[in-house]
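CORE FACILITY INTAKE
Project code: CF-77B
Contact: R.S. (postdoc)
Sample description: multi-component assembly, two entities in total
Requested service: structural model of the whole complex
Turnaround: standard
Below are the sequence entries exactly as provided by the requester. Do not edit them.
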Amino acid sequence: MAESTMKPPKKALSPVKWMREHLFSTWYNALLTVAVGYLLVTSVGPLLNWLLFEANFQGQDASDCTGAGACWLFISQRLNFFIYGFYPDELQWRVDAMFLLLAIAFVPQFIERFPGRKWLGIFGMTGLPIIGYFLIPGGTFGLEVVESTKWGGLMLTLILAYIGILASLPIGILLALGRRSEMPIIRGLSVVFIEVWRAVPLITVLFMASVMLPLFLPEGVNFEKLARALIGITLWQSAYMAEVIRGGLQAIPRGQYEAADALGLGYWRKMGLVILPQALKMVIPGIVNTFISLFKDTTLVLIIGLFDVLGTVQSTVTDPAWQNVAIEGYVFVAFCFWVFCFGISRYSQNLERKLDTGHKT
Amino acid sequence: MKKQTIDSRPAGPKPWYDPRVRSLFFQVVAIALVFWAGWTLVENTLANMESRGISTGFGFLDETAGFGIIMSLIPYDATMTYGRTFWVGLTNTLLVSAMGIVAATILGFIIGVARLSSNWLVAKVSLVYIEVIRNIPLLLQIFFWYFAVLGALPSPRQSIDVGGTMFLNNRGLYVPEPLTQDGFGLVWWALAIAIAAVVGIRIWAKKRQLATGQIFPTFKVGVALLVLLPAIAYFAAGSPLEWEVPALKGFNFGGGITIIPELAALWVALSLYTGSFIAEIVRSGILSVSKGQTEAAKALGLPNGLTLRLVVIPQAMRVIIPPLTSQYLNLAKNSSLATAIGYPDLVAVFMGTTLNQTGQAVEVVAITMAVYLTISLSISLFMNIYNRAVAIKER
């Protein structure tokens, strides 16, 4: 932990010595090394062959997939569908613009000392969703309307994850405050809400949103399927968010609460000016981790008939024009998710190390 | 809060500044809001259900279901009631959750320890496994195993034959089923006696160790008892066990136990996925035991195995148990992804088919959510009890 103390100098070992120390230190280690090594050699070679060396990259349709390896043609031919769903070709610039803005707002967050990084982040949390609200569905400023049933692919996955996390944050904060409240009824209601949502699987929540929500609303009021899914995801996610934020609230030393009281601050000013800024900063890694799990869980919407990126792939691997491309499709989706999740998790680990200022007990 | 000087303090703050009055006010408002929202929901729902001609109440549970279920642990056929479909779904959910928890725990502990191995290759391979598996959505992994791997298996006639007794094809894995004959009860009795004896020996050995310091090889004797006693009983009763080997009849296999591909895919995916999370928990648990503890144990002259068993593991378990519990809960909840590939779990059977046929969404969803709530609360209760047992006893 203590970065100030110097680390011991690294031992410089010759390759033979290194191998003796790290691979063949005892007889059972040697045995393990040989067994694992054998498995690796026999599996990685064919895997690489399939993925790259014998794979098919060029051509027009399934008949061009002649090699023994993967048929990546299938992905490149259908890429448009996997990214935009049924969004009309000539209007896809709107989605591209949102992708670009998203990248401008959030990629700098990975780069330390990027000028104005904080403001870009704030724009990403406030301005971006407003622009998206007008740009993606259209209907205002002379933009052509694109119904939400036509949205799909990677774009839909990002919309679900982004809105889910953004909307659940304020609800989560309120619930966390409610759970730490001194008023027994407020506390009880918050606990029940949080625990019920956390106990049920997301699928039941999505089913509920798609089957029961129409029953709950008065006659004539109806939401689109996507909006219903978003409501379900947001409520479910806000319970998890509340628990993460509660962790931060509990980690703030009592003295901070008492100091705010001593200054004569009321409840909201105490929380808004003293407690929450510290608590939220402390739980950023936790929030990022919830985001990762939400991002992975958005794939579940395909069960209620929305076409997220996995949904689009799943619907095309059964296409008779392409035979036996299921593995290629899954590998493609897995790669998309893996790059996102692994990148973000590395970022959050970095952040954790940086935020660990030794305040935690 | 307005300025208040000490000498001119009034008898009490004005009512709207009094924290007690305020908190009472807010709580009354909160209750009123919740009741109002609940009332509106109920009213809307009743009106909507009436206009759509949906009946209410739990009477549908006694009606005939009329649909088949591909796998059930309890006797079931299409002439039985909707209530029965609930139990079929529930037992299937519990089955896959229990199987998943066992496999994920074993896998997670092995990978977690391997991650800390002094063997560079083993440590790196475990790291790659963890980082790859946990960053890919579970649903995708289930699809991968079900459609891409199990779907590519040969048809029943070209089954993969394992020693003439087990058969693997795209309809599932067929294994021999043990059929107990008369006299098998003796083996159960022997097993029960062996378990009782092991418990007795353990208590006696601990007492003796406390009194004299001598260590009795409880583990070895215990294993020997547990294996030998039932084995003797088995042969004494004249081997009262027969195996029903599956055989190809027409287009499919008959006899034996069938593990349907839906179950296999779900089980493999759940175990691999949750196992990768458990591995990280185990790793951080072991790392949390300070080096001084191991060194102290070594200084006392404990051999490596005993150091691990008596010093490291008990302390690591304290750190491991709470997050492990939430992983078990996650696994039980994630088993509901069965719906996507058609494994007949609670959500697929009850919230899927039964809900579609009866249309009684409110009742069905309420029952399903209540079940998950019960499972969640009981797992966390059980784990809290265990956690209390292993927690640090501070004086």
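Facility notes:
- Residues 292 and 341 of chain A are 6 Å apart (CA to CA).
- Chain A touches chain B through 55 residues (CB under 8 Å).
Invoice: internal transfer
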